[in-house]
Amino acid sequence: MSLKANYFLYTLYFKFEAGTSRGVFHQKDTFFIQVYDPDFPEIIGWGEAAPLRGLSVDDRPDFEDQLAEICLRMHPFDLPKTTEEVLGLVQNLVSHDLPAIRFAFETALLDCLRGGERIIFDNEFSRGESYLPINGLIWMGSPDFMQAQIEQKLAQGFSCIKMKIGALDFEQECSLLASIRKRYSADEITLRLDANGAFSPDDALKKLNKLADFQIHSIEQPISPNQWVTLRQLCQESPIPIALDEELIGKSDYSSKQNLLESVQSPYIILKPSLLGGFQATLDWIKIAQKLQIGWWITSALESNIGLNAISQFTANFPVQMPQGLGTGNLFHNNIASPLELEGERLYYRPQKNWEISF
Asked: Cα–chain-centroid distance for residue 232?
């Protein structure tokens, strides 16, 4: 029988004020997707469509209308039989300018295909046989708040810390970095920075030169997107390797992705499947990056554990060694209880633990 799909809104509440250079998050709305075959109603595939306010290309007033329409359009289709067929169906069914919805339906259909047990990809990670290394994320806030986060992550045993910068006074941020380097060398603690496009083109290189004193592994998106000439020059002159993040959003076809990476020639790119258009879109970025010898890692984008689980299992399909940005599962008071488990800087999937999805 043909598939059926529905959705509902769920609001996630942060445990603290989650600050970025684009503002402070207190709560976040997300949409959960259900896909099932009426002949087998006990097998339900779950997905998550979670556009980020002010950043996702599908952060638009008619998002829910689009989601409702796509749920209706799912009805004539039967459940695909392979991962490739799932990805192909979603590419044809959902427009490229609705990346969060593409990600949600890829996840839900793959879940349904594998029995509705939240096993999106069958690999060593989802079988509980391996883990993913992750970085410890430091959110923006007062100097005391950021210092407390740093101390917590170091006490938990993280060897890679990612700090969001661009909202505090620059000298205060440098002081925080200096305090880490006084205690830990670059061999002991890897420092990543994320500017979220906060630097101006006029002073970006000056700031990057100053930040290089603290032996920084990389910095994400130092200037705002769509300034390719300036960005390429920064990539050539910066003493800190630059990683593209927001720059990738909205590049939907293969040629535009390749053009960006060939033009800017950044050392790294950051991949957020729910912002880029799902797993097929992320695979395209990886293929191009590998051809151009550009490094990459994958991060979540404030999804609940439903989305985070899908991204983590996808990431585990690759032989990743660098820490990934997948440590966001503990951000919310009311996250979905899941088999995902953090032990210091290691993310595990514990198959013996149950999902608790009760809506």
From this structure: 24
- CB-CB contact of 304 with 12 (8 Å): yes
Q: Which tokens hold the place of 27?
A: 């709560």
Q: Are 145 and 153 in contact (CB under 8 A)?
A: no
Angle between helices 279-291 and 254-264 (to 10 degrees): 40
CA distance 199 to 178: 20
Measured distance CA(108)–CA(326) in Å, rounded: 20
Edge-to-edge strand ranges of the sheet holding 23-36: 4-20, 23-36, 44-49
Active site residues: 164, 272
pLDDT mean for each 10 residues of the chain (359 residues)? 92 81 79 95 96 90 97 93 97 96 98 97 98 92 85 92 87 92 92 93 96 97 95 97 97 95 97 97 98 97 96 98 90 94 96 88
What radius of gyration, in Å, describes the C-alpha atoms of the chain?
Answer: 20
Task: List Cβ neighbours of 233 (8 Å cut-off, separation of 6 or more).
Answer: none
Number of continuous H segments (helices) and E segments (strands) in the chain = 11, 13
Count other C-beta atoms under 10 Å from residue 218's C-beta: 22
